[in-house]
Write a structure and sequence with these properties.
The protein has 6 helices and 7 strands; from the N terminus they run αββαββαβαβαβα. With 222 residues, the chain is of the alpha/beta class. The protein has one domain: Rossmann fold. A 7-stranded mixed β-sheet has the order 1-3-4-2-5-6-7, with helices on both faces. α1 packs across α6. The longest helix is centred in the middle third of the chain and has 16 residues. The chain starts with 9 loop residues before the first helix and ends in an 8-residue tail after the last helix. Its cofactor is Mg(2+). Belongs to the TRAFAC class TrmE-Era-EngA-EngB-Septin-like GTPase superfamily. EngB GTPase family. Pfam families: MMR_HSR1. One of its GO terms (molecular function) is metal ion binding. Keywords: Cell cycle, Cell division, GTP-binding, Magnesium, Metal-binding, Nucleotide-binding, Septation.
Length: 222
Amino acid sequence: MEVFRDLKDEAEIAAALEEGRRLFAGECEFIFGAQKLGQLPPQTLPEIAFAGRSNVGKSSLVNALTGRRTLARASSEPGRTRQLNFFNLANRLMLVDMPGYGYARVARSVKEDWQDMMFDYLRGRPVLRRVVVLLDARIELKAHDKEVMELLDRAAVSFQVVLTKCDDVAPTKLARKQAEVEAEIRTHPAAYPHLSLTSSQTGLGIEALRADLAEFAQPRAV
């Protein structure tokens, strides 16, 4: 199946956008928070996981995608989320909010536990279709970001990089950031080749990202 960003025909593009809109307009509810691998819910739906540094805007992006304000709670305290949060979207797709990484005040043991648990989850979850890796457009690419991409390469899990908070960056600076991240993406075999530019505040890129992710959902019931 072609992904949205590779479509050329206007009718196909319109259909993909509408499919994404309909999916993410469906009922979405929090079903479980897992702090250990043994607590993971049954693998009943395709899963899309969201990963990123603490305060990169993961919760805001999930809320923007689903058109809700408080589905995933954003925190002003970096490193607060310490579990995998599962959200059932229209009984067709599972959205997984992963704990933030790279927060300096989190103890080394916690960071190591995060990496071990995340790698085990990524490697051992057959229903996981893609990981969305969020990067803050206002901040330089960090070593932790590259390490997570390498982790996904080793786990052989397809990932898609999304720039957040693009509304808060001047056009010339955003263009430089885009070029930098695209160059990094090309070095990772598990990376989806297209970079997404988004803003949860203005809605930039949200429709297109919905269409991208809708490709992995179970078909609508007839």
